[in-house]
Design a protein that fits this description.
It is built from 19 helices and two strands. The chain has 522 residues and is mainly alpha-helical. The chain folds into two domains: 427 residues, no CATH class; 67 residues, no CATH class. 47% of the residues are buried.
Length: 522
C-alpha cells in the first residue's frame, strides 16, 4: 500500500470523526439516563420498564431538537441575522427554558385524543403501546432528519399512538374525526403560513423598499411592524407558551399583548429613527433594521416551542411512569422533574449535535432569505397559530414555518415575473426608438416610486404604438424573464415527507408493539 492510499484512508477517517463524536455524545446522554433511572427504581414493582422507556424518551427528545427546532431559527440563520453557532446557543437556552419553566406539571397521555384509552384495561398493554408510539415517532424523526426533511413531531407521535393503538385495540379504538382534522392540517398549516408570510413581505415591499426614500419610509413603518410583532408574540406566548402556568382566554391575552406592544413601540421608535439616520438609502440598510427584532422572534418562538412540544417527548414517558407507579391506565399523567429534564436537555442536545442540517435546509436550501423575508416568516408562525387556535383548526408549527418560507419564495417569483412583464411592455412600446432613449426611460422607471411607475405605464398605454413582435417572439420573451426562486425538488421532498409522516410512524409503531408484546408475553 503506497503513501497516497494511506493519506486517503486517513482523510476519510478524519472526515467521519465528527459524526462519530456526535453519536458518542448522544449515547453518553442515554447512558446517563439509564444510570439515573436505575438508581431510582429500587423497590418499585415493574420499575425496570422505566429504563427502556426513559431511554426512548431521551432519544425522542434528541430527534425533536435535531428536526423541529430548525423551524424557529432556520430563517434567522439563512438571513444572516444569526450565525449558526449563535442560533444553536440561543435556541438551546430558550427551548430548555420553555420546557422547564412553562412545560407544565400534567400532560395528556393520549396526544390529541386520537385513541380511547378506556379500550385498554391492561396496564402492561398500555405501557407497550406508549413505548412503541414513542420509539416509532423518534425513529421516523431520525429518518426525516437524515433525509433533510423538516416534519411535524406532533404528527410523528400522533401516528405512533394511532398505529400502536390500533395494534393493541383494533380499528374501533381510533378517533377518526380527529385524524381527519389532523390530515386537513397538512394543507391548512402551510397554506395559512405561506399566505400570511407573503402578505407581510408584500406590505414591507410596498411601504418601504418600493419607495424612493427607503430610510424615511423605514423610520415610519419599521416601528409599526415591530409593534405588530410584539402584539402577536405577546398574545402567542400568553396563549401557548405560558398556558400551563396561567391559562387565559383570547381577549385577555390579546389585551395584555396590545399593552406590551404599545410600550415597545414607544421605546423602539426613537431607537429606529436614530439607527436609520446613520444608514444609507438602500435595501441592505432596511434589512439591518429588522435584525434585532428577528433575533427576539427566534428566541420567543423557541421558548413557546419548548413549552409546548416537550410533551411530545415526555408525554408518553410520563404516562408510562404513572402507569407503573399507579398500576393502571391514566388519561392525565404527572410530569416529575426528572422526566421534564430528559425532555429539555435532550432537545437542547439534539439541536446542538444534529440540528445544523435542518437549520440549513429551512434557512437557505428552499429559497434565499434576507432579514425582511425571515421577519415575515416569524410573523406568520405566531399569527397563524393564534388564528388557527381561535378557529379550532389543527395546525403544525413545522408546516407553518416551512410554508412561510415557500410563501415568501413564491411571492418573489411572482413579483419578479410581474416586473419583467412591465419591462417587456416598455421595450415593446419603444422597439423602434433609439436604444439610449429606451435605456434612459428604463433607468427612470427603476428609480420611480410605485405611484410614479403606475403613471409612467398609464402614459405608455395612452400613447400605445403598434407592436411588430410576433406572438411566438412575445412568448419567447416571457420565458426568458421567468425565474425560479424556490427549489422545486425541496418542495416535492418536504411535501412527500409530510404526507407519509402519520402512516410511516403508525406502521412502525404497530410493528414495534407486536414485537414488544411477543417478547414480553410468556
Amino acid at each position: 500500500m503506497d503513501i497516497n492510499q494511506l493519506n486517503k484512508i486517513e482523510q476519510a477517517t478524519l472526515f467521519n470523526r465528527p459524526e462519530i463524536m456526535r453519536f458518542g455524545y448522544a449515547i453518553l446522554f442515554l447512558v446517563a439516563i439509564v444510570i439515573y433511572i436505575y438508581s431510582q427504581i429500587e423497590g418499585v414493582p415493574g420499575g425496570f420498564m422505566l429504563i427502556p422507556a426513559a431511554m426512548i424518551g431521551g432519544y425522542m427528545a434528541i430527534n425533536i431538537g435535531a428536526n423541529d427546532v430548525a423551524n424557529n431559527v432556520g430563517p434567522a440563520v439563512g438571513s444572516k441575522a444569526l450565525t449558526l453557532t449563535g442560533a444553536i446557543i440561543l435556541a438551546a437556552i430558550f427551548e430548555a427554558s420553555g420546557a422547564l419553566i412553562a412545560g407544565g406539571d400534567v400532560v395528556s397521555t393520549i396526544k390529541k385524543g386520537i385513541i380511547d384509552p378506556s379500550s385498554i384495561s391492561d396496564p402492561n398493554t398500555f405501557i407497550w403501546l406508549m413505548m412503541a408510539a414513542l420509539l416509532a415517532g423518534a425513529v421516523w424523526l431520525n429518518i426525516a432528519t437524515a433525509l433533510g426533511a423538516p416534519v411535524s413531531t406532533t404528527h410523528s407521535i400522533v401516528g405512533g399512538v394511532l398505529g400502536a393503538g390500533i395494534a393493541a385495540g383494533g380499528l374501533g379504538i381510533a378517533n377518526w374525526d380527529k385524524m381527519g382534522m389532523i390530515a386537513a392540517s397538512w394543507v391548512i398549516s402551510p397554506v395559512l403560513g405561506g399566505l400570511i408570510a407573503a402578505t407581510f413581505l408584500f406590505v414591507i415591499k410596498r411601504t418601504i423598499t418600493y419607495q424612493s426614500d427607503m430610510i424615511s419610509a423605514a423610520k415610519k413603518m419599521v416601528p409599526i411592524l415591530i409593534m405588530i410583532m410584539a402584539w402577536a408574540f405577546s398574545t402567542y406566548l400568553a396563549l401557548k407558551g405560558l398556558k400551563k402556568i396561567w391559562k387565559m382566554d383570547f381577549p385577555t391575552a390579546a389585551g395584555i399583548g396590545l399593552a406590551a406592544a404599545v410600550i415597545i413601540y414607544t421605546v423602539v421608535r426613537p431607537m429606529i429613527a436614530k439607527k436609520a439616520d446613520a444608514l444609507e438609502n438602500g435595501k441592505a440598510s432596511v434589512n439591518i433594521l429588522f435584525t434585532i427584532p428577528l433575533i427576539f422572534a427566534a428566541a420567543l418562538l423557541s421558548f413557546a416551542h419548548g413549552a409546548n412540544d416537550v410533551a411530545n417527548a415526555v408525554g408518553p414517558l410520563a404516562a408510562i411512569n404513572d402507569a407503573i407507579l399507579q398500576g393502571g391506565v391514566v388519561q392525565k399523567a404527572n410530569i416529575p422533574l426528572w422526566v421534564m429534564m430528559i425532555g429539555a436537555l435532550g432537545i437542547a442536545l439534539g439541536l446542538a449535535l444534529f440540528g445544523p442540517k435542518l437549520i440549513r435546509t429551512v434557512g437557505s436550501e428552499i429559497t434565499e432569505l434576507d432579514q425582511m423575508r425571515a421577519f415575515s416568516i416569524a410573523m406568520a408562525a405566531a399569527i397563524t397559530v393564534i388564528i388557527a387556535s381561535q378557529l379550532g383548526l389543527p395546525v403544525s408549527s413545522t408546516h407553518i414555518a416551512v410554508g412561510g418560507v415557500f410563501g415568501v419564495g413564491f411571492l418573489r417569483e411572482y413579483l419578479k415575473a410581474a416586473y419583467a412583464r412591465r419591462i417587456q411592455k416598455i421595450k415593446a412600446h419603444h422597439q423602434n426608438e433609439d436604444e439610449e432613449k429606451v435605456s434612459q426611460f428604463l433607468a427612470e422607471f427603476d428609480k420611480a416610486s410605485i405611484a410614479e411607475k403606475s403613471r409612467m405605464l398609464q402614459e405608455l398605454k395612452r400613447n400605445k404604438k403598434e407592436s411588430h413582435l410576433s406572438k411566438k417572439e412575445r412568448k419567447g420573451l416571457k420565458k426568458v424573464y421567468r425565474e425560479e426562486l424556490v427549489k422545486r425538488s425541496a418542495l416535492l421532498k418536504i411535501a412527500a415527507a409530510w404526507v407519509i409522516t402519520v402512516p410511516a410512524s403508525g406502521a412502525m409503531a404497530a410493528l414495534i408493539f407486536f414485537t414488544l408484546r411477543g417478547m414480553m408475553l410468556p
